[in-house]
Specification:
The protein is an all-alpha fold. It has 7 helices and no strands.
Amino acid sequence: MGLADGQAWERDYPATDKPKSRTPTLNPGAVLADPNTNPVGEAVAAEGVNHLVILAHKASYDAGWWHCPVTGEPVGTVPEKIALIHSEISEALEADRRGLLDDHLTHRPGVEVELADSLIRIADLAGALGLDLGGAVVEKMAYNANRADHKVAARAAGGKKY
């Protein structure tokens, strides 16, 4: 399922339209770092996240969100993209607070669709930056599993709070 650096762009774009970013690849060392976890399941999870990164960034690039369709010049900055991610999270909060259904996918809760929008924007930015988001998610989850402030006892004792 994983693609080598640049593989998706070579297949989908002429050389002149090729994005400057690279596609993420799985870092097997990161997946196998914790012997107490399931490396096969984690590898699949990391590959799935990285596949989403590729799909989201390709869709965004094709839609012109990373370059001017007329001049081909790059558009958008990392801070601007992070602000858009933040706005989607805020929309999810508001949809949940008000118990709204989504305006466009009216059969789905608004919070669900806004979280999906957030995930899509995060994956797009990760793709533009060439990040191994899947590997980072797996590593961070393994790290958090061993953190004292992420244990039930810590929460019961008033540890890390919302």
